[in-house]
Amino acid sequence: QKEVEQNSGPLSVPEGAIASLNCTYSDRGSQSFFWYRQYSGKSPELIMFIYSNGDKEDGRFTAQLNKASQYVSLLIRDSQPSDSATYLCAVLRAAGNKLTFGGGTRVLVKP
Amino acid sequence: KAGVTQTPRYLIKTRGQQVTLSCSPISGHRSVSWYQQTPGQGLQFLFEYFSETQRNKGNFPGRFSGRQFSNSRSEMNVSTLELGDSALYLCASKQLAGSAGELFFGEGSRLTVL
């Protein structure tokens, strides 16, 4: 079992709709969870992080964490063509530990 | 504030050669991590340095090595290059104090091994 798993996609979403991305992790000791966006040919950029159960909103993005079920999700509201990218979920087990990435979900937003 | 800077951005080597990649972290960031990214394996952790000491290491052969200098700049070296080493090598830095652990990535060094 991979430490961090994501559906590779592509997730095709019409413009203006909500894109829902999921990520599961295997280590119950994981403490912090991150979502990165990576455009083709570019490096990953941090969208947001979450470390408490529940929802965290930042603009059009909402991260949701459920530690009991060991999953974290990302919602993108009012999806735009510029949101087309690969979204990487990353998990930090403890302070000072390495950040482990999932394989990423490719999102395509169609006008 | 300047971001993470990596050099060179692109390079081509042949099998058996060695390569050194450089990374300058964001000012004030003392932790530097290196990742290898390939289409098949995704982002894989190589190692992390903090205060000139290797703090974590991924599952890569000994041909992959790194170091960090007193100004937090880091280098990684790959010796005896193999075709499978062709990848995007990403450096990332992070603050430790007051940080949730988020990484900030450089643009990467794209290595092609022929």
How is this fold's topology laid out?
The complex is a heterodimer of chains A (111) and B (114).
Chain A: E1 4-6, E2 11-14, E3 19-25, E4 32-38, E5 45-50, E6 54-58, E7 61-66, E8 71-76, E9 85-92, E10 99-101, E11 105-110
Parallel strand pairs in A: 2-11
Antiparallel strand pairs in A: 1-3, 3-8, 4-5, 4-9, 6-7, 7-8, 9-10, 9-11
Chain B: E1 5-7, E2 10-13, E3 19-24, E4 31-38, E5 42-50, E6 53-57, E7 64-68, E8 74-78, E9 87-94, E10 104-105, E11 109-113
Parallel strand pairs in B: 2-11
Antiparallel strand pairs in B: 1-3, 3-8, 4-5, 4-9, 5-6, 7-8, 9-10, 9-11
Describe the structure in your own words.
- The complex is a heterodimer of chains A (111) and B (114).
- Chain A has 111 residues and is mainly β.
- Chain A contains no helices and 11 strands.
- Chain A has strands at 4-6, 11-14, 19-25, 32-38, 45-50, 54-58, 61-66, 71-76, 85-92, 99-101, 105-110.
- In chain A, strands 2, 4, 5, 9, 10 and 11 form a 6-stranded mixed sheet that branches.
- In chain A, strand 9 and strand 10 form a beta hairpin.
- Chain B is globular, with a radius of gyration of 13 Å.
- Chain B has strands at residues 5-7, 10-13, 19-24, 31-38, 42-50, 53-57, 64-68, 74-78, 87-94, 104-105, 109-113.
- In chain B, the strands form 2 sheets. In chain B, strands 2, 4, 5, 6, 9, 10 and 11 form a 7-stranded mixed sheet that branches.
- Chain B contains no helices and 11 strands.
- Chain B has 114 residues and is mostly beta strands.
The number of E-state strands of chain A comes to 11
Rg measurement of chain A, Å:
13 Å
Measured as a percent range, the helix fraction of chain B is under 10%
Strand content of chain B: over 45%
In angstroms, what separates the terminal alpha carbons of chain B? Answer: 37 Å
Q: List the total number of helices of chain B.
A: 0
Structural class of chain B: mainly beta
Work out the largest interface and the residue count of each chain: A-B, 22 and 20 residues
Which stretches of chain B are poorly predicted, pLDDT < 50 over at least 5 residues?
none
